[in-house]
Sequence to fold (947 residues):
Amino acid sequence: MRGRVAIVGGGPRCLDLLERLVCRADGHALDVHVVEPGPLGVGLHAVDQPDYLLLNTVCEQVTGFTDESMLGSPGAVVTGPSLFDWARGSGVLVDGRPVRGTDHLPRALLGEYLNWVTARVLAAAPGSVRVHVHRTSAVAVTTVPGGERIDLVGEPPLVVDRVVLAVGHGERSPHLPGHVGDGPYPLPAAVADVVPGETVALQGVGLTGMDVLAALTVGRGGRFVDGTYLPSGREPHVVLVSRQGRPAMVRPRLNPGRRALPARYLTHQALGGGSLDFAADVLPLVLAEMEHRWRSYGGGASPDFRDLLLGGPPAAALRSTGTYRAWYTAQLTEDLARAGAGLGVDPVKEAVEVLRDHRDVIRAAVDHGRLTPASHEWFYGVFAGAANRLVIGPQLERHSELLALLAAGVVSVGPGPRPVLGFTSGGRTRLTSHDLVEPGSVVVDRLLIGHSPAVDPVNAANPLVSGLAWAGRLTAVTASGRPVGVRVDRALRALTPTAGPSPRCTSSGRWPRAAPTTTTTSPRRAARPRPRPTPTASPGTSSPPSHRNRNESMSQPDPSRSSWRKDYDRQTLAAQAGGWRDPGTGAIPPAVHIGATYGRDADYRLPGGYAYLRDQGSPMYEQAESVLARLEGAADALVFSSGMAAATAVFAVLPAGARVVVPRTMYFGLTKWLREFGPIRGLDVVTVPTGDLDAIRAAVQAAPTALLWVETPCNPTWLVTDVAACADIAHAAGALLGVDNTVPTPVHTQPIELGADLVMHSGTKYLNGHNDVVAGFLATAADTELWQRLRLHRQLGGALLGPLEAYLLVRGMKTLFTRMRQISATAQTVAEHFATDRRVRRIAYPGLTTDPGHAVAAKQMSGGFSGMLSVHVDGDADLALRTANATGLFIRATSLGGTESLVEHRFTFEGPGSTAPPDMLRVSIGLESAADLIADLDQALDRARGE
Fold:
């Protein structure tokens, strides 16, 4: 009986597998099915990519033919030339001369070579092995009687004994116009929307970052002549930023005859066979091996290799942005000289090359679940990126070019390490480094990703992989709380969440390897992606939740409107909903998509990436979330079915036992929810006097705290809390700060600029502004693990907003600035009129100079103090109720923020347990005449008193 194997993915990993199968068939009858729509062997090394995208390994070290030293076991091999020998034999020229073994050749040339190698391997197949190539895509794998069924696009399904996922480096994602992209490739298409003369921040300074830089310079017609860069005038200005703040080390020249020394300390035997803590068990071996290599190559007093690997810039470089930039440039120059001396000569380069020469030992320590969970997080979150910076860096020529670009003023170094993202009042992005003695900042028009994004199998665009994950046949490896690949055992069998190895399913390539080959430097707060063109959705039979694919036909910024600028004022952004238009008709009002489910095309593809409302959301969500995120200066936003759904989601996703500090006076619904459900969820809820910073500080510092929650001005007493001070208190204790910004709205306060991590809105109120929608919003300063849990909570909990309600929210936000300024001005007039009235004991309104919170409110609110005030009548609850009943223009109703003015006796509405004073009337000012409102309240006060 013939064996049946399917390899999904026809890139370099497939090539390795094909060679093993061909060479070790041992006369067995075998059918090998390769599913790959593109040329075989090529993978991401497309033959049509620009020649300025170079390999970072010299060509004499690259081969498509496996030998026994690479396999670790004996066996026949298919022999053939290295990339260097093949290129030399093919007459390839570099700068007009024959290729040398130390050349870094274009990746497109590697693609041609790998395609040639694949043809040679297939030609070597014995007669018992038949290879079938399917020029299509696989969309699903399911277990059936007799094996595994693979559904293909446009071809009958396959049934095989074993499936191998050779998906390599995962998905290509187009760059997002305007802000952060999902990934930097393919180039130059990913940066085609970058406008000449713009200032862009490039996140990541390694090999991938230099690829992006090449696309923006030589890819746009610039030239290097005798060490000088001659601009074309089509370049943007590029600012280099990274988390660690140190430049990537350049790949050194490979000197003839150099051979890697055998390991003395970092060996498989030293690792043993049990569980490992990487920092305690493996890192000391790495550092000892680096020290040994340093001494072996004549190094004197050894440098601090731990600092070289994991540390940041020295204190002397951190006095100011100027000292940091000077140090950074000096590091580039010094490293270039070391790289020029090369391996076998320079002891520093030899020492760090340990990480590359013995990476098989490091991988053996990390792969297959040997690390403890905490150590696994540390490896991927700290060590992997730092190691890549030392040995997966750019080519020597690229570093020389980088110095020329710096000298030409086309590129500059960022403000300092670990830049934090914020926004200017005009909506531009500000990156600030607080690691400096004198914090420095730079303002840019957009952010570009210069590192490879992590792969999430659950939300993969590849429907086959995501379908297996959702079916429980794959489980994700996580790093820093985020999925980065597929968990496998030592035989590379994919591990299920509970049942061990997945039968007949093997994963090869980057899925189980993930982060050890990527650079993960980035500002701690990522900018909100602006509305974007849509990537073509992959075919699929299942549709796991994903927010990456958006509907191409939804309303979006009209690319033909070249006058639409990213630095328009936020009022302009709100008025035109960020410049969105219906691309099909040009209609100014956005198209309304009310569908709950979406159809597939003839190839079973999802044309816009949407399948079901609860999973992928709605095109209507995208527009509402984008507008609010940009008004708040947030990295992302989520719409919910109500403000309470949004607020309680934050507390619901905290771990059991989490300690939260909340104000004593805040929205009564949230107070009641915490009282009823906090204990059930295991939350330790601590209440403090609203706005009392000393009490807040004491409570947060008394025990480990997960979240500090603030509502300012607070409902219904309008006490004010200092958001910036609370951010300092929370962050000093390792807590997050969440702020209910419903009352001031982003027109008057932007909590994220003040340091908040999360912002909540009841969209029912001012954002909608017409009393005809119930909705909620959350916005985040950064795309964190908590944020991803909130997204999942909304999806699985079903706290979804209707698409029509999302449309009404956007409609309301278009007039937000005009309404808020008018409402705030009227509220100020009404409050000042009654502030000294003998019939009123007190007016609570932050805009009054006599209000206890006025000084803080004036500091953190601009353009007004919103439209909420409370009238404390000079009497009891009965007098307050009679006053409300005597109004004629004010409507006796709950809620706030609409065009109509409302009055409410809050103590009666809230009932038992209310913290509202009995003598208080809560007043929501609308858009009526201030004179009419004053006259109505004036007569009501008289009538209530019988005057």
Summary: The radius of gyration is 31 Å. The chain has a mean pLDDT of 82. The longest helix spans residues 321-341. The domain at 3-173+454-517 is CATH 3.50.50.60 (FAD/NAD(P)-binding domain).
